[in-house]
Amino acid sequence: MTPTEKTQPDTRDDALRAAEKVLGDIAQRHRRLTAAFAEAGHELYLVGGPVRDALLGRVSADLDFTTSATPEIIQPILEQYGDVVWTAGIEFGTVSCEKDHEQLEITTFRADAYDRVSRNPVVRFGESLEDDLVRRDFRVNAIAARMFDDGHVEIHDPLGGLGDLVAGVIDTPGAPEDSFNDDPLRMLRAARFVSQLGFTIADRVKDAMSAMAEQLDRITVERVQAEFTKLMLGTTPWEGVDILVDTGLCERFLPEIPALKLAPDEHLQHKDVYAHSLTVLRQACDLEDNGPDLILRLGALLHDIGKPDTRAAKPGGGVTFHQHEVVGAKLVRHRLKALKYPKDVINAVNNLVFLHMRFYGYSDQAWTDSAVRRYVNDAGDLLDRLNKIVRADCTTRNKKKSARLSRAYDNLEQRIAELAEQEDLAKVRPDLDGGDIMRILGIAPGPTVGKAWSFLKELRLERGPLGVEEAEKELLAWWEENKPEA
């Protein structure tokens, strides 16, 4: 599926037909499980995301079930049925298992209340399927499919979720204010579903998100980051981000993005840098080769966040953003660290933001082989992503300028390919290693070895492969000028 494709069914019948095979396959795979619950006198329902996805013609990786059975009944059934069973969520009524590499989570009907200070529920088991469905986040996630031991299924939709799904609308079972007071993370989930499903948010839900944005502060940063990451990996992440900004939610955890609305784009081709950044994100998604790439997408969204702090007026009109990539890289490192992203993600996005302007020196004048080597060396494993961001960063409506930049991108990539045929650009290293340096100079391990290695690395970048003999000659000449006084 390409980033802009949507799979929303046109009618209820279309949705039901789409779900028939998916749900039927699930029911057939787990007939023994359904039979075990039936023998114990209990019903078993597939519920939530797996049902919603099936109605959209998609297959979910994991399966969520709800049942009238209590955990004391669920656990022995799963111990007989599953390959591995775990009970970490048993106090919340949930027992899980893995069966043939598929993860199943089974929860007793719930009718929870929330303390509305944290997002932790006061667990109370429900007496019916309707009790369970009405406490769920959105109506499209409150559709159930009863499993029968003969392999057929029966859709239960007491809250009208199927109608919302066909209309492509995100709405809550009850008043959105009640839902979000119970669990503010649901506001982020609404934006995430915009990105993942291509749906719109009901006006009353969006109004509640705007009015209650500060309630997001009750949620741990880890949960916020997890939801935002899922949003960024969705089908249309720029639409999800736009919802976050419009409702004020983004201000609570990533304020640098709404701040871009204050910075006019220097090319005057967009009403602000914020709109430009969403366009770059969308164009970067279009360039992906192997599915959603979180690092690429974060780099595209955040590449210009240094602009508000570097904005300066130009003589005669207009604005400049000198060194915004340097300032932006620092902001990225600070913000992603605060959101507790892994170090490898932080470092990669930081480097993409820092390097994204380097290309424009190439577009203005031809680079030497040395400059091309340095570009590739500095980008390292990020080279492909950096090239994608550079290409996506061209949002000008000036056709001549766009064509010129495109030719420059193509030419640089051709130069890189030509040099790569002659030398290993991905691993530019000196012709001598640390052991060689110590042997040739007769020195012990220490800072001097590192300085000599750095000298040879710079020489390698400047001149290309030297060969051992020439490198040794250059090292000895450097040593004559840098060895300590006797």
From TrEMBL:
Keywords noted in UniProt: Coiled coil, Magnesium, Metal-binding, Nucleotide-binding, Nucleotidyltransferase, Transferase, tRNA processing
GO BP annotation list: tRNA processing
Domain HD/PDEase: 269-435
Any one GO MF annotation of this record: nucleotide binding
SUPFAM superfamilies membership: Nucleotidyltransferase, Poly A polymerase C-terminal region-like
Protein name in the entry: Poly(A) polymerase PcnA
Co-factor(s): Mg(2+)
Parts forming coiled coils: 402-429
Originating species: Corynebacterium aquilae DSM 44791
Record-linked Pfam families: HD, PolyA_pol, PolyA_pol_RNAbd
PANTHER family tied to this protein: CCA TRNA NUCLEOTIDYLTRANSFERASE 1, MITOCHONDRIAL
